[in-house]
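Notebook B, p. 112. Complex prediction, attempt 2.
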Amino acid sequence: MSKVLIIGAGGVGTVVAHKVAASPVFTEIMLASRTKSKADDIAAAVGGGRIKTARVDADSVEELTALMRAFRPDIVINVALPYQDLTIMDACLECGVNYLDTANYEPKEEAHFEYSWQWAYQDRFREAGLTAILGCGFDPGVTSIFTAYAAKHHFDEIHYLDIVDCNAGNHGMAFATNFNPEINIREVTQPGKYWENGKWVETAPHEIHKPLTYPEIGERESYLIYHEELESLVKHYPSIRRARFWMTFGQEYLTHLRVIQNIGMARIDPIVYNGVEIVPIQFLKAVLPDPKSLGEHYTGMTSIGCRIQGVKDGRERTYYIYNNCDHEKAFRETGTQAVSFTTGVPAALGAEMFARGLWKKPGVFNVEEFDPDPFMAEIGERGLPWVELFDVNLEL
Ligand code: NDP
């Protein structure tokens, strides 16, 4: 018996709304976003009068607290943008509401993301007796829970961790991003970074790459990029000697990205155009396809997992755990493609883990700090089945 407030009516919000509505644990659901009509459309698609909607500017703590005081949710699922993480956490503290998100805080004016800002809320959440669950999408999220599951059941010590993220889907567009274009382009144009022997090693963007073989997909060129879960995983698993994150990109995507950067359209600082201040990357977002619209013609699969090497009972072992998700199947169920689907399903299940008292402790926690077992037992039937392979060639 729990009341949930979902903030953000984009691709991920659509999936969260469908999944939360399908769960008997949530008795009352509200979906609030900047543009109320988008929340209304999602509520209508879910049907059954299950979802109430509201308009909220999540940059405003005042608007958020007014909404929370009126609706009185037990937990907020934040699937707006990373810029809103702190205002939503502030409002949760003011109103005594628990919190869950899928992406770490990033200031609008600086393409830089790290957990320090949200970890700084630890004492305030603990003292208020509230739970904040950070990074409960797929990556971060399921990849972190896969790592926790491996550490709990298959390894005494993890030494090498490689998170591999392949999107082998085809949406038929010359260039589009699979989630919010502004956030996506800011993320993938950053310098690369990985953890080795107790320190971070920086690379030029996309400098390190190699072909990796993905199950049911085959070989795809994979690029080392920095991804936020590396920061919390190396903190929580200090036996890790090296942790890296790989993502596949097609040549066509990389060429477009290079042009976008070279002509200044990836800039995040404001410029004045015809007397109006605009931020080039925000203008670009407005002309690129909405990630939500890609679903209808998307074919193929995503494959995301963890390749791990370490020791168990004094013996070296390798381990690969992954999920493959089909774009067309995701679209049939929720009207969105697999990238939104793989993010929204874990967010909804994470909130349910909280509501059922399984992931409930005062403070601010990354998902790997909770017991992975109840989540792993149910994520398959929610739409994201996983496969384990032992003693395989990790190619790394
Ligand atoms: P979208 O851009 O599709 O949706 C974002 C939604 O948030 C939109 O409805 C938008 O409103 C709303 N929003 C933006 N600003 C505000 C605001 N100030 N107040 C209220 N609502 C606001 O993004 P996605 O659904 O693709 O992504 C959602 C989140 O999920 C992002 O934080 C993203 O980083 C994260 N993500 C995490 C992944 C993971 O695996 N962990 C993978 C993919 C995404 P409007 O429609 O008016 O613009």
